[in-house]
Amino acid sequence: MTVNERVEEIYQAERDNIYSYLLYFSVPAGRAQELAQDAFLKLYLKMAKGESVENPRAWLYKVAHNFALRFHQREAVFDDLSDDFEPADRLADPEHAAMEHQRKTVLLRAIRDLSPRQRNCLYLRAQGLRYREIADVIGISTSAATEFLRRAALRLKGIMDGY
Amino acid sequence: MGTKGPTGMGSPHLSDQQLMQLEDGELSEREASHFQSCPQCGSRLRDAQAARAAYVEYRDAFRASLLAPPPKSWRTLDALITRHEASRPRGLHWWSVPSLAAGACVMLGLIVSALVLWSPRQTSSARASLLLTQSAKRVLPQRRFISLRVHGRTLVRPAVLSTEAEAEGDSDIARLQMVFAAAHYSWREPLSARSFQAWRSGLRDKRDSVSIIRAQDDESYRVRTETDSGVLRTASLTLRAPDLRPIAGAFDFEREGIVELAEAAASNEHASEARAQPTRPFTAPPRNETPAGPEVTLHVLAALNQIGADVGEPVEISEDLRHQHVVVHAAGVGRERQRQIAGVLKAVPRVMLEFDSGRSPLPPAKATPLERYSASIPATLRQQFEERLGGSTAFQEAIDRVLEASASDVAQAHALEILARDFGPRIEASLMAPDREILHKLRDNHISELERLVSRIREDFKPLFPGIPDGAIAQAANGGATASWQAGAASLVAVARKTDDSLNRLLASSYSQSSGEEMLRTLAAQIEQFDSAIRSERQAGR
After folding, report:
1. Staple partner for B493: which of A141, B89, B199, B413, CB 3.0–4.6 Å?
2. B82 in contact with A at a CB cutoff of 8 Å?
3. What are the tens digits of pLDDT across the range B499-525?
4. Nearest chain B residue to A125, by CA
5. Strands of B326-331's sheet, edge to edge?
6. Which residues from A are below 8 Å from B26, CB to CB?
7. B291 CB contacts (<8 Å, ≥6 apart)?
8. Where does B294-356 sit in CATH, by number?
9. Thinking of the domain A94-160, which architecture would CATH place it in?
10. Which of B7, B20, B509 to mutate to test the interface with A (most CBs of A within 10 A)?
11. Other CB atoms within 10 A of residue B520 CB
12. This prediction's pTM
């Protein structure tokens, strides 16, 4: 497989994910798409030079993360969700819908109450990144990444228990 | 077995890091064997997995619906690579030797052109029709602007007017509208293949020609039609080669002379106002003017600084491809802010304003709940903090102010770094005295703001640092004056970030009482170091 074919394959599979990651940092859609494309171009140029990229996915998230920071010219806040957002109900059964709504509201509140770093770590973990990769993407130590994840799990457990 | 337990006290259980390693398949068999027989570690792993599952539900069921889809279709990887190759500065590789590269590009272009256009069986008329038909199928962006050059004036208007009547308001424009109408050529959308084709197909007699135009790396096709009937004697439309988008046109009217049209970027006067006032004249410089110098960027920064838009806002400043304009691109800013930005930049010549019309994908940021920060501080330390700062409410308020000031500090330091990067000593020396004064004023504004913010942090947290004499560390750290203020700006950013990290660690991470005290000492030292770095920066600028 040539470098071009390999990157093309990754591009097809991951571009929406990298784009979404940038949106989570409040980068406007048009710019996020440009930056996502730039990230893949960077990957291609790196690999075309013969440099090895052990895990291209994690590498792309790292590039996207740095793009987001540079875009905001400061520390960007991950997933700064408004308090106004309410989960939508799609269930016909009113009783079930009420319970489900309550559960979703609690979940939403629980996620909102996590710190931006905790949400960021959890997001990347949910994207399938290893904890070492998460630390590398965000630019923190592995122990800090572990700690953010542990605290996020603890907090979610405390709030979600019973729902 | 794990050498360090979950509490870091030598517990027999797997540490959190080991649990992660277990999930990631990185744990040795011996260490992993504990997990098989330990319900406690099993429960902790399930908690981690449940948290992830909850997050996935949040992501997919709630959050996904708030994310904007990509506004454009994705470019192919090949297109990205081609664009990159075309835009990068040429080096000494064989493939970038101009004659060879140009030869390769021309050959490729010629092959395509020859196949489509220059087949011996194609007449000029058929080639013109083919190009215009293909171009007319293109969907053009809604917010396009065109410039019209007539009688030595340059006017800018939207590429498509919503009604013919919108063209009134300027005598030149009103006259042009009448001339276009007399020629049966669409005034509403003059720079369009559809309009050109409609005019052309209504002519009783016509002579077409098609030519390829190459300028630097750009290639385009020009369709030219001459006629002896009507008031419009000759018209040409230039189509960009890769996508056949109309980019320029020339219309030679009987007794009126030539009217030139060209696609224009949204100008500083028009980006936000063009729809309401589509025919206001805009005096854009001609295309072959000298490059915009650094002083234009400086004036832009100074103008933005007046309204605080040069720090911490999604405003990017760059040059256009021809280096004739400074492009100010603001993404995701509200309408009112757009008006303010357009207002302060109105007086700056050679500026193009681009407002990303895409709404920010998320609702506006709200203040972070305070409790989030201090909840993780060890109880004893927290109590000490609260006592020293005058109670829990005062403590929370101090945290809020300090974190806000620290984030602003990072942004200010970064803005200073950009100023130092764009106006290095050589460029600074080349500026005229009044511009140099503007540069120094901008620099001093950033430094003053940094001083104010650091002073606020120090004041707010002073009661937490009782053992550290005022300014003692600053004096120790002082003396490292830099060669120039530009050289010192980068280290200032580093210190700002370090201080911000320390503050966040102290206020948001979990740690033991003793580590907390150590972190506090480090933070105190960093604040003094930061203060010292700011003073050095001010000295270097004198």
Report:
1. B413
2. no
3. 887 887 777 666 777 788 888 888 888
4. B52
5. B315-319, B326-331, B351-356
6. 130
7. B319, B322, B323, B324
8. 3.30.1340.30
9. Orthogonal Bundle (1.10)
10. B20
11. 20
12. 0.41
